[in-house]
Amino acid sequence: MKEQVNILNNNLYPLKLIPVSKETIWGGDRLKKSYNKKADFENIAESWELCVRPKEMSMIANGECKGQSLGDYIKSNGTSVICENFNSDRFPLLIKFIDARDRLSIQVHPDDEYGLKNENEFGKTEMWYIVEADEGAQLVYGLKQGCTVEDFRKAVDAGETESMLNFVNIHAGETYFIPSGLVHAIGAGILIAEIQQNSDVTYRVYDYNRRQADGTLRQLHTEKALDVIKPLTSDEIEKIRFSKGNSGNDTLANCDYFKVKRLNIDGKTELSADKKTFQSLLCMSGNAKINFGGNDYEINKGDSYYIPAGMGAYSISGKAEIIVSEV
C-alpha cells in the first residue's frame, strides 16, 4: 500500500460503499429493518461500513469504479487518496454500525505496542456514537471509581466480575470515547456507530457464560485482558479524546488516530477534502445529496461514502445527520 501511483482525476469522486455484514449471537434486526442493510442471515450484529482488511473489504457501488473493492481502488490510484505522505502498510480506520439486541462481552483492547508484539495487529482506540438506545439501556464504561487492576483481578477470580464495573445509563446522541486499556461493553438495546483504529484485536474477560449456536462457550482472554486494562479516570479519557484540540460541540473526538465531527444539515453545507486526509461520511438519519463536479449523489439513512483525499470542494444539501471521520 506504500507505493505511490499517478492519480486519474476522473476517479476522484464520492464513492458509495457496500459494507460487510457480520452475524453474532447478540445481534439485532434494526440494521436490516431501518438502515437498508442486506445479508443472507436473519440478524446483522455489525455492518462494517468502511473496511480495508485482508478478509473484509468494502466494495464501491457507484460511478467509474463501481464493482471495485476499496483496497483495489487505493492500489490503482495510490495512497494519496488516503492522505498525503501515507507511510503505513495498513489502512488507518475501521468504521461500523453495531446493533446489540443482547449485551456484548466485557472486553478491552490493547495499545499499539502490545497489539503488534502479541497479535501482529495495531491496538484499538475507538469511539461510540449512540444512534439508538432503548429506555434504560446501559454501557460498561471502565472500572468503578477507585478500583485497581488488582481489585479487578480478584473479582474475576472470584466470579464477581460485574461488581467492579462502571455501568452508565445512555441516550441517543451521546458519544463515548474508549482509549486502549479501558474495559467496556455495549449493553442490550443499543445501536451505535463505531469509529476505531483498523484492528480486530479484542480481549474478552467475561461473557455471562453464554453458549454459541453450536453449544460451545466463547473464548476468553483473561490474562491478556488483565495485562492491558488501565483504571483510567474521566479526566484522563477526555485528555486523550481531545489530544489534538477541541473545536466545539460538533467535534466528537480529535485524537492521535482520528478526528470525528457531527453535521446536522438543514439546507446546504459546504465541505472540502484536501490532500491531508480522506473523509468518511456515515448518515445517521434523513435524506440529502452530495454535490460534486455538477453531479448529485444521494446519501440517505444508513449510507456510507468514502471521499478521497484531494477530491476538493463539495457540498451536501438536504436534511440529515452525518458523522464525518478523517485521520
Describe this structure in words.
- By secondary structure, the protein is mainly β.
- The protein folds into two domains: 20-57 and 93-247, Jelly Rolls, CATH 2.60.120; 259-326, Jelly Rolls.
- Helices cover 14% and strands 37% of the residues.
- It contains six helices and 19 strands.
- The strands form four sheets. Strands 1, 4, 14, 15, 16, 17, 18 and 19 form an eight-stranded antiparallel beta sheet that branches. Strands 2-3-5-12-7-10 form a six-stranded antiparallel beta sheet.
- The model is unreliable at 1-8 (pLDDT under 50).
Task: Describe the structure in brief.
Helix content is 14%, strand content 37%. It is mainly beta and 327 residues long.
| Relative strand content | 35-45%
Rounded to the nearest angstrom, the distance between the terminal CA atoms is: 17 Å
Instruction: Tell me the count of domains.
Output: 2
What is the structural class? mainly beta
The major beta sheet can be summarized as: 8 strands, antiparallel
CATH architectural category of the largest domain: Sandwich
CATH topology annotation of the largest domain = Jelly Rolls
Share of residues in helices: 10-25%
